[in-house]
């Protein structure tokens, strides 16, 4: 009976080998999810830093407009003639490239 318990212990993989699947999952998770999100976040931050008065933007709410005033934390965006709204920087989803 004692011989069977030693045989069962010998069949267990080493401590390092038991963490190999977990490490593999973490590496795949990093390259498929975290790294692309970090790149996207950095590109969005760079786009926000480049915005200036007169640029046409698309807001996260779906409105499009033209930036009329650039502040440190807010943009003033004209969404219609004589209609201006103040939005936070992160509310700008993208810069419009069409003329």
TrEMBL record:
Family: Belongs to the YajC family.
Protein name, UniProt field: Sec translocon accessory complex subunit YajC
Topological relation to the membrane, as annotated: Single-pass membrane protein
Keyword terms, alphabetized: Cell membrane, Membrane, Protein transport, Translocation, Transmembrane, Transmembrane helix, Transport
Gene Ontology biological-process entries: protein transport
Coiled-coil features, chain-numbered ranges: none
Taxonomic lineage: Bacteria, Pseudomonadati, Pseudomonadota, Betaproteobacteria, Neisseriales
Bilayer-spanning residue ranges: 15-34
A GO-annotated cellular component: plasma membrane
Organism: Neisseria elongata subsp. nitroreducens
Location(s), subcellular: Cell membrane
Signal peptide residues on this chain, from the entry's feature table: none
């Amino acid at each position: 009976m004692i011989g069977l318990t030693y045989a069962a212990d010998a069949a267990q993989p080493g401590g390092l080998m038991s963490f190999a699947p977990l490490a593999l999952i973490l590496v795949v998770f990093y390259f498929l999810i975290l790294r692309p999100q970090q790149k996207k976040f950095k590109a969005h931050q760079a786009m926000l830093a480049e915005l200036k008065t007169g640029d046409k933007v698309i807001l996260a709410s779906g409105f499009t407009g033209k930036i009329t005033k650039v502040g440190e934390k807010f943009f003033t965006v004209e969404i219609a003639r004589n209609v201006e709204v103040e939005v936070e920087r992160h509310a700008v989803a993208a810069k419009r490239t069409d003329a």
